[in-house]
Amino acid sequence: MACYSWGVVAGDLNTIVVQTGESVNRQTACPEVPKEPEPPFQTDAPLLQVRALRTNILKPASFALAAGECIAVRGPSGAGKTLLLRAIADLDPNQGLVSLEGRDRSKIPGPEWRRLVGYVPAEPGWWAETVGEHFGNWTAAAAALGKLGFPEEAKSWPIARLSTGERLRLALVRALIVGPKALLLDEPTAALDLASVEAVESLIADRIWAGLAVLWVTHDAGQARRIARRQLVVEAGSVREEVGQWPVTTSP
Amino acid sequence: MASYYVTLSYWDLALASVLVLIDAGLSLIFGLKIHRNLLIAAIRMSVQLTLIGLVLTALFSLVSPLWTGLAVLAMILFAGQEVMQRQDRRLSGWWSFGLGTGCMMMASVLVTAFALLTAIRPSPWYDPRYAIPLLGMILGNCMTGIALGLNTLTTSLMLRRSSVEAQLMLGATRWDAAAPVTRDALRSALMPTINSMSATGLVSLPGMMTGQILSGVPPVEAVKYQILVMFLIAGGTGFGAVAAVLGGVYRLTDARHRLRLDRLTAAQPI
Question: How far apart are CA A230 and CA A243, in angstroms?
Fold first, then answer.
């Protein structure tokens, strides 16, 4: 029986628990999780550890994310969800401790950190004219692109003619083929039809099963329940973990 | 061929100034409301040039490395001020003045010294009669190039922020992520130099060459000087622009390879 809530409740620095690799069992914070097969890479040692991470807008946030775990991030628009992801990816100036597999982020050069901790923004950017130019290795991307409904000839499609939904899915695959250990997703299914939402969720679920850790910003409570067992709530720049009533329904 | 030039009397200038007065009259007739500005500009021009004539006379008779150096420094500082004023968005703090000025100083002094020590070789090499006009021409063009290059850099980084950050997110270094914008900035910095080199002789006769011809230098000799100056300008603008644009990229990113547009001030009202 896995207890997924050993992570430190965000913002509450007095309760920081030193993670020693052993599971810290906090029954009060542990929701009723239905029994199901353990994913192969699920361990209790945190993959991504965030402690007192803050920017000039974001209040100190602390939580931990294990390999093969997905946390849903929710909260009203403008609350700071995107800022939280940008701060973890180290795209904005920030203070606090962030580590991956016990390696301190400040010891890892920025570009290498962002290859390890991928970030897909809500409005992905493009720097060349065609789709293919944005993928270092098109063959590596082909399988995932196929799952999301892109044909082989999508390589030569001009970026200017893509729909918002197509851009989101392409950006997701673009980030996945870099091979990150953790992935920060900012509303990756916001502009997608139902079939595409399912395809994206199942693609990410496969990666999570294989050990990827995911922080997933979503406005959709149903999606949050489908993809994650833990939930962070961001409100007015402060991040806290939602416990107790979560999750309400069983995982898929 | 004897070298001679026609000296002008102050009456000649007074006669020519009637043309400006006619302009002012036209402004009054058509209600353009620019006659005041026109007259002030004409007076300013006359006073400034008269003063610089006196300063140059003194400098040329002194042939002092100290005074020549001070004059050069003053020119560079004025040019730096001008570069700063031509930016829609400035770098914050000392960088707004320091970057453009430093790069111009480096490029124009280097290229002027190169010309003085290799091609022209006056004695002494810092003779202000050669050093100051040469530096002035190189500096003027370098200034235009750097101002354009920095302005293009900051404007395109603002407009193409998401594309630059998209590359950073995938693990690109700051230099790789900014490369497309850097290229655009350098291209726009060097474009005026390239255009003026291609148009020179067909569309425009450069001022320096025309001046030499008016003062009695044989045209072929004046042309040789002009070609030398054009090469110096191309070199100076190139060095200066590369240093300024790369310095701008350095300042607008940080050691963690983040894009730091917070180090730009808000757009200047024009």
Answer: 8
C-beta separation of B264 from B90 below 8 A? yes
**Does B180 contact A127 at a Cβ distance shorter than 8 Å?**
yes
Domain-located, residue A249:
no
Q: Is B1 on the interface with A (CB under 8 A)?
A: no
Distance CA A40, CA A67 (A): 10
* Yes or no, beta carbons of B257 and A175 under 8 Å apart: no
User: What is the pLDDT averaged over residues B74-102?
Assistant: 95
Q: Is B180 on the interface with A (CB under 8 A)?
A: yes
Provide the chain A residues 87-146 that lie in CB contact (below 8 A) with chain B.
89-93, 109-112, 114-115, 118-121, 123-127
Q: Count the domains in chain A.
A: 1
Do the Cβ atoms of A47 and A100 come closer than 8 Å? yes
Q: What is the bridge-based pairing of β-strands A117-120 and A182-186?
A: parallel
- Classified as helix, coil or strand, B220 is helix
Average pLDDT of every residue of chain A = 84
| Contacting residues of A for B259, CB less than 8 Å apart | 91
Spans of all domains in chain B:
1-62, 64-263
Check: complex ipTM more than 0.85:
no
Tell me the pTM: 0.84
**DSSP-assigned letter for residue B267:** P
What CATH number is attached to the domain comprising A44? 3.40.50.300
Question: Does residue A12 carry a pLDDT above 80?
Answer: no
- Contact by Cβ (8 Å): A21, A45: yes
* Nearest in space to A98 (alpha carbons), one of A52, A63, A49, A56: A49
Q: How big is the CA angle at B245 (ends B239 and B248), to the nearest 5 degrees?
A: 135
Q: Are A120 and A87 in contact (CB under 8 A)?
A: no
